[in-house]
Amino acid sequence: MRHLDIVDLRADYGSHTVLERINLEVGKGEIVSLIGPSGSGKSTLLRVILGLLPPIAGEVRIGGQTIDYRNKRDVKAIRSRVAVVFQQYNLFQNMDVLRNVTIAPVKVKGRPRAEVEEEAKLLLTRVGLGDKLKSYPDQLSGGQQQRVAIARALALKPEILLLDEVTSALDPELVNEVLDTIRDLATEGMTMLIVSHEMAFVREVSSKVVFMAAGHVVETGPPKQIFDNPQMARTQDFVGKILRH
Amino acid sequence: MDITLQFGQITPHLPYLLGGAWLSLQIAFLAFCGGMMLGLLGATALSFGPRWLRALVGAYVGFFMNTPQLVQIYFIFFALPDAGLLMEPYEAVLLGMTLNAGAYLTEIQRAGFTSIHRTELEAAQTIGFSLMQSVRYVILPHIMKVLFPPLSNHYILMTLGTSMAAIFGVEELTGRALNLNSQTFRSIEVFSITAGLYIVITFIATTLLALVGRGFFRARMRIL
């Protein structure tokens, strides 16, 4: 069953077209990775899905339902069904870990605080931060902050999780703790759309890899195809460069 | 030369001096509040306003930050009456200090605006916060944490700056000290007690502000 469906999507920054005729399907429980050179539009695609950048043309459908990005209620609805984790974590610096995770369910969804806190504690324990509830973001390492950000995203009980280069800002020795957390989510059947430069990881977890360049989808296929037997010259060139070292 | 300190002559006048200190605190508080409002308007204009408004606010801030406060108050007190605006010394001092504070607090608050993390706001948006919720839960707490220490410092400076009012005959702490000095001629005693009162006032204010800043806004402030 299709969970996230993107059809002929186009987006512009001012007069500059950054995404053109993007088509993408993500099935329920599927993990799809977006790879490609910087500036190819991977992160922009996530921003469009979230309504941070309204599309010029095309459609985004979630569970078969088309999102109208000019409609505030639709945008709000999509943000409760789709959660995102950013490269720079973007935690609220003025709140402790527990409040970072609980504030959206409590203030946006209006759920009882006690109940949300219990869930948040479980989530934080699951990402290995059960002992950091009262810490502030600036007291944590990058890897810890990123795991809080993942817990914050999960606290909204999203159907789909978008991960935007979540390990790019981390020191190498902290990358694995975050990747492990994502692996756990993968085994639980969470639908995910991942932008990543961790090629070994992408190959391991993805059911489908999408190679993008210059605002276009160049090639889509299983990891084996994209990494071992790419069909398009542009893909061969990119894969050749990143796998050589 | 022999100096015999005679604090005994001054201590009966302590309530008189304390009354002056109370007026000093009032002037500082009122001017600070007025300055905060001017500063909020000024910082908003500088950050989001059209070019002509930014130029206007820039000129205001430039003028008041680059001239002595005393000259500014003189101007208000002696020059404005020619324009038909006659003011009591207390009013002139209050207006001058407010306008001066407005300029400094414009700059301080503008720095707070520019320190807002756009990415934090985006995160707030993507978890479904409305604009008002973003302001309340993300922007304001952040601004308070960043701005509370410099605002506190300026408030302390303003408290001490109220002594300028004495020149215009306002009977705040320094003004009353001058009166007492000309009655008793015990200068050392009068001014050491006056200095002591200023120290007590600023010490209490600094400590209270630091406690509030640390307790409510997680601001990095030292407690003496």
Automatic annotation (TrEMBL), chain A:
<keyword id="KW-0067">ATP-binding</keyword>
<dbReference type="GO" id="GO:0005524">
    <property type="term" value="F:ATP binding"/>
</dbReference>
<protein>
    <submittedName>
        <fullName>Amino acid ABC transporter ATP-binding protein</fullName>
    </submittedName>
</protein>
<dbReference type="InterPro" id="IPR030679">
    <property type="entry name" value="ABC_ATPase_HisP-typ"/>
</dbReference>
<keyword id="KW-1003">Cell membrane</keyword>
<dbReference type="InterPro" id="IPR027417">
    <property type="entry name" value="P-loop_NTPase"/>
</dbReference>
<feature type="domain" description="ABC transporter">
    <location>
        <begin position="1"/>
        <end position="239"/>
    </location>
</feature>
<keyword id="KW-0472">Membrane</keyword>
<dbReference type="InterPro" id="IPR003439">
    <property type="entry name" value="ABC_transporter-like_ATP-bd"/>
</dbReference>
<keyword id="KW-0029">Amino-acid transport</keyword>
<dbReference type="InterPro" id="IPR017871">
    <property type="entry name" value="ABC_transporter-like_CS"/>
</dbReference>
<dbReference type="InterPro" id="IPR050086">
    <property type="entry name" value="MetN_ABC_transporter-like"/>
</dbReference>
<dbReference type="InterPro" id="IPR003593">
    <property type="entry name" value="AAA+_ATPase"/>
</dbReference>
<dbReference type="Pfam" id="PF00005">
    <property type="entry name" value="ABC_tran"/>
</dbReference>
<comment type="similarity">
    <text>Belongs to the ABC transporter superfamily.</text>
</comment>
<keyword id="KW-0547">Nucleotide-binding</keyword>
<keyword id="KW-0813">Transport</keyword>
Automatic annotation (TrEMBL), chain B:
<comment type="similarity">
    <text>Belongs to the binding-protein-dependent transport system permease family. HisMQ subfamily.</text>
</comment>
<keyword id="KW-0812">Transmembrane</keyword>
<dbReference type="InterPro" id="IPR035906">
    <property type="entry name" value="MetI-like_sf"/>
</dbReference>
<keyword id="KW-0813">Transport</keyword>
<feature type="domain" description="ABC transmembrane type-1">
    <location>
        <begin position="21"/>
        <end position="209"/>
    </location>
</feature>
<feature type="transmembrane region" description="Helical">
    <location>
        <begin position="190"/>
        <end position="212"/>
    </location>
</feature>
<feature type="transmembrane region" description="Helical">
    <location>
        <begin position="55"/>
        <end position="80"/>
    </location>
</feature>
<dbReference type="Pfam" id="PF00528">
    <property type="entry name" value="BPD_transp_1"/>
</dbReference>
<protein>
    <submittedName>
        <fullName>Amino acid ABC transporter permease</fullName>
    </submittedName>
</protein>
<dbReference type="InterPro" id="IPR043429">
    <property type="entry name" value="ArtM/GltK/GlnP/TcyL/YhdX-like"/>
</dbReference>
<feature type="transmembrane region" description="Helical">
    <location>
        <begin position="20"/>
        <end position="43"/>
    </location>
</feature>
<dbReference type="InterPro" id="IPR000515">
    <property type="entry name" value="MetI-like"/>
</dbReference>
<feature type="transmembrane region" description="Helical">
    <location>
        <begin position="152"/>
        <end position="170"/>
    </location>
</feature>
<keyword id="KW-0472">Membrane</keyword>
<keyword id="KW-1003">Cell membrane</keyword>
<dbReference type="InterPro" id="IPR010065">
    <property type="entry name" value="AA_ABC_transptr_permease_3TM"/>
</dbReference>
<keyword id="KW-1133">Transmembrane helix</keyword>
